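so my prof wants the structure for this chain in the tokens format not the other one, which i didnt know existed until like an hour ago. anyway here's the sequence
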Amino acid sequence: MKTFDIRDEYITLGQLLKAADVIDTGGQAKALLAEGDVLVNGEKETRRGRKLYPGDTVQVRGFDTIKVGKRS
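here's what i got, hopefully its the right format
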């Protein structure tokens, strides 16, 4: 599991996937989510705009689990 620290209150799922180098474009995020390959806190997620807060976990098939952390 790797941690991705954010500065703000939240980050969207699409932004996290791009920043964590899981995808390169928003179109890839849309396709990945449509295939059902993304779990947020253990539940299937299909929304790129899903707000993620410190403590949330994101699992993507074929990648490490990402835990959202808070940068001080």
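also thought this was worth mentioning. The chain has a mean pLDDT of 94.
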